[in-house]
Amino acid sequence: MSQNEEEAVVQLLAIIYRKIPWQKIRTSKNIHDIFNHRVRAAARRENIYEFTSKLCNYFGLQSIPSEAMHEIEILRRNEESILQQLSDEHIPLCVRAIMLAQAWKKEKKGGKNDVSEV
Q1: 16-54 pLDDT per residue, tens
Q2: Does residue 87 contact residue 43 with C-beta atoms inside 8 Å?
Q3: 3 state SS for the chain
Q4: How many domains does the chain have?
Q5: What confidence tens digit (pLDDT) does each residue in 45-57 have?
Q6: Domain residue limits at 64
């Protein structure tokens, strides 16, 4: 997987992670563990479209933001290899995606606070 493809995987996972309604998911397990396992399971699909659809279905998502299509199109070029690597290396890729999603959330909160203080 190229650096560009790896970044696209992390971006796509972060986009999906942010859309998941975590407050509605009732579990005694760590939510990051659940995300990791479901990414690995979805990576067994035939192609990136099926991977994305299955991962979204696992979490009850009916759609994803249109910005994810850019990442999906990058991944389609080498999808067999990428899905294999996602299956093999799901934990570090998911951790990077979770960290990115959390950074986006923090930036968004920071931006709202700056505007409201003016």
Answers
A1: 999 999 888 888 888 999 999 999 999 999 999 999 999
A2: yes
A3: CCHHHHHHHHHHHHHHHHHCCHHHCCCCCCHHHHHHHHHHHHCCCCCHHHHHHHHHHHCCCCCCCCCHHHHHHHHHCCHHHHHHHHHHCHHHHHHHHHHHHHHHHHHHHHHHHHHHHC
A4: 1
A5: 999 999 999 999 9
A6: 3-117
